[in-house]
Amino acid sequence: MATTLNESPPESRTARTGSGGRRRRRRLNLLPYLLVLPELVAELLIHIIPMALGVWIAFLSLNQLSIRHWISAPFVGLTNFRNGLDPSTAIGSQFFQTLGRTAVYTVLVLGLCWLLGTAAAYFLNSQFRGRGLLRALYLLPFALPVFVSAIAFAFMFNQRDGIVNKVLVDELHLVDDRPFWLIGSNAFVTLVIASVWTAWPFAFLLQLAALQTVPDEVYEAAALDGAGRWRQFFGITLPMIRTPNVVMLLLMFLATFNQFTVPYVLFGVSPPSEATLMSPLIYQFSFGNWNFGLGGAVSTLLLVLLFVVSAVYIRLVMPKERPGHA
Amino acid sequence: MNRLRKAVALGSAALLACSLAACSSSSGDDGDVTITWWATNLASSLERDKEVLTPVLQRFTQETGIKVDFEVNAWGDYYNKVLGAVSSGEGPDVMSVGTTWTQTLADTGAFLQLDDKRMTAVGGRDKFLGPPLAAAGGDAKGGPSFLPMVSGVNNLWYNPKLFAAAGIDAPPRTWNEFVADARALTKDTDGDGTIDQWGFGYPAGMAVELSHLIFAVGRQEGGQMFGADGKPTLDSEGLVKAAKLITDLMATDKVLSPADVESTATTDTFQDFIDGRVAMTIGPSPVPTFTDAKFTDYAGADMPLVEPLVGDPIMTHVAGVNIGVFAETKHEDAALKLMKYLTDEAAQVDFYKDFDVLPTNRATYDSPQIEKTPLFKTYADILAKHADTFPLNSKTGQAETLIGDAMKQLFAQAALKGPLSEAQIRDTLTKANTQLVAAG
Question: Do B409 and A289 touch (CB under 8 A)?
Fold first, then answer.
């Protein structure tokens, strides 16, 4: 074998090697596509096609009668969008009220989760006995399925037998009449509390990971310069964990704005109007009133809105890549 | 590239072979037919339903050689499941559906219409009682899309022991008597300053039940959910007055606990009834639940009528379960045989005994196996004289949800703010009506 190779002229060997290399390159070039193919097909089937269908449905008069032959349901142009966006109609005013409420809900949940998560992570980033146990304890709500937590909240906030009213009314005597927590304006408070409970460990986890990237030497140097704990937090910690914070807030914003499970489990198919969020409203339009066209239109509006907000956020807030960094 | 092409070709061939195999297995073998049936919950639990239905269907298999693969569905999200089958064309051969969905589902065209030939195959029109067959769309042109499997009514349920303790010797016949009795039965029995026995209990957070209650009281007040031209009239005067009468039970008469606005299932009320927390309720039969709990202090009676009676003496819609053959079935004959069997006398007797529902088969009423208990007589009398079909309109399914949700909101307002004005009620019902119109 070695003799044969040695006898071959260098040019032809080069040529063979070159041709073989091209073949190898071609094979190597195909492999990534083949590996990505199943994912691409799954992505198309699970996300892209249903999303495109959802947008298409928004232009159809699709209800329970036309659903059997939904492909040939009547095309109604922008009618569903007009119904959803006309504030003078019952549907339009419901849409705008719900949009505003969802924005307030998102700000509150996001703000509280960030505060709790950051405070807990900052606290648990220092060395002390029992730190591991507390970390595990704080992550417990994140390990529980959301619907299990929401069911527990529904029981706790039950007007007649819930633990919250037992404590407030029977034990502490803070109020005379048992308040309702699952109907009326209190329902919004309950929704925020339950949502924060289920979501804040995510903020805690990411903040903890981010804090561990800040070197101790920086704090030591700051301490030598006379910076106190608050000054260190605002002058060192926050700027140094800015990048993971920005990403975390975007992820949590999208998840919170689209919140469905918590209100659905707390209030059922038709939540009180004071606590109706966008996703449950879309569900109500689509599967409560079986007006799939209107549900599709509102979904599309929500998709566009979230896309625009995310794009603006990324453009304005997300740190830019520095030259020389891949 | 050639290898890739070969791989793609092989993969495609395998996929094609699989899909062909799947198609051929779904088309079935005439010698050993297995059909599928989506049944619905009628007993105190889904497990109990299965216990009852299994021997009934084994008998069917022995008689016909046809096997039935069935599943029992809870009512909660069942309508969406049925609509999913309608939209995809993938569903069982036979489906049970609620009587109030009949017209809407029939109008989807997803169920076989029972023309004369098919109707003969299931035993003919005369086999069935008039009101249940009408509620199954019996008068539809070209034949109904469903058959009535079992019937039910909503009526008054009361605790005779609590009545006797309050000095009341008979159930109320009119709405005024009902309110007066409920007031007498609402009391603080242990003297701790809070009411622990309510005259009336109701799942005021359960939209479907609320839609049925306002249908009945609304008819008594002369209200209809749809006008003669078929257009929605959820905010008609009769329905506004009915909603006022019903919500006043909580807000003005104070015989219904405000806590009931968080009650979202009839079983919640049944449990309160068993616990002695409520003395009366109105609704479908709680007998299977009471029997399971070995609770015997109950009796059934007619639902009270409003005074003066403006509309019709309707106490309930024709409740129950209808069954239909899914249009995509490949086993039409076997499916029709199952429909016939389920509505024949033997199965109807079983359903009456185990589910406390009324037979839809006319001859079964004369069967010696049907014990003519006072409850049976009450049900049969209400079904014959005081029941009407829930509106047979394409939009009934949506109307049921929307008016039920509106009633739920009104009860929430009544619990939080007290008595509601007719204007407030009209406003809420008008919003529901607007949504129904917009639903297209």
Answer: no
B155-317+391-438 classified as CATH 3.30.565.10: no
pTM, entire model: 0.83
The answer to whether A263 and A271 are in contact (CB under 8 A) is: yes
CATH topology (fold) of B31-151+319-388 = D-Maltodextrin-Binding Protein; domain 2 (3.40.190)
User: Alpha helices, DSSP H only, in A162-215?
Assistant: 163-165, 186-211
Q: Is the pLDDT assigned to residue B26 strictly greater than 60?
A: no
Cis-peptide into B203, omega within 30 deg: no
Q: By CB neighbour count within 10 A (0-12 exposed, 13-18 middle, 19+ buried), where does B262 fall?
A: buried
Helix-strand-coil split of chain B, %, nearest 5: 50, 15, 35
User: Is pLDDT at A305 greater than 60 in this prediction?
Assistant: yes
| Beta-carbon separation of B405 and A288 below 8 A | yes
Q: Among A173-177, A200-204, B208-212, which stretch is predicted with the lowest mean pLDDT?
A: A173-177
How many residues comprise chain A? 326
| pLDDT, tens digit, 9 for 90 and up, residues B369-411 | 998 899 999 999 999 999 999 998 888 888 999 999 999 999 9
B207 contact A CB<8A = yes
Tell me if residue B189 falls in helix, strand or coil. Answer: coil
Contact B214, B194 (CB under 8 A): no
Instruction: Note whether B262 contacts A67, CB cutoff 8 Å.
Output: no
Give residue limits of the domains in chain B. Answer: 31-151+319-388, 155-317+391-438
pLDDT tens for each residue of A309-319: 999 999 888 77
**3-state per-residue secondary structure call for B45-85:** CHHHHHHHHHHHHHHHHHHHCCEEEEEEECCCCHHHHHHHH
Chain A residues whose CB is inside 8 A of the B416 CB are 180, 183-184
CA distances to A142, A154, B27, B100 from A136, in Å: 10, 25, 54, 51
Contact A268 B80 (CB under 8 A): no
Please indicate whether, in this complex, the C-beta atoms of B397 and A268 are within 8 angstroms of each other. Answer: no
Q: Which residue of B lies nearest to A61 if distances are taken between CA atoms?
A: B440
Residue A270 near chain B (CB below 8 Å):
yes
Please indicate if any CB of chain B lies within 8 Å of the CB of A68.
yes
Interface contact A233, partner B, CB < 8 A: no
Q: How many CA atoms lie within 13 A of B143 on its CB side?
A: 18
- Is pLDDT of B310 > 90? yes
User: What pLDDT is attached to residue B167?
Assistant: 96
Length of chain B: 440
Q: How confident is the model at residue A321 (pLDDT cuts 50, 70, 90)?
A: low
Q: Give residue-wise pLDDT tens across range A4-26.
A: 344 444 444 444 444 444 555 55
Compute the distance between CA of residue B97 and CA of residue B76 in angstroms, rounded to an integer. 12
Domains of chain A: 90-316 (1.10.3720.10)
Lowest mean pLDDT: which of A5-19, A132-146, A225-239, B44-58?
A: A5-19
Q: B275, B295 in Cβ contact below 8 A?
A: no
Do B135 and B345 form a contact (C-beta atoms < 8 A)? no
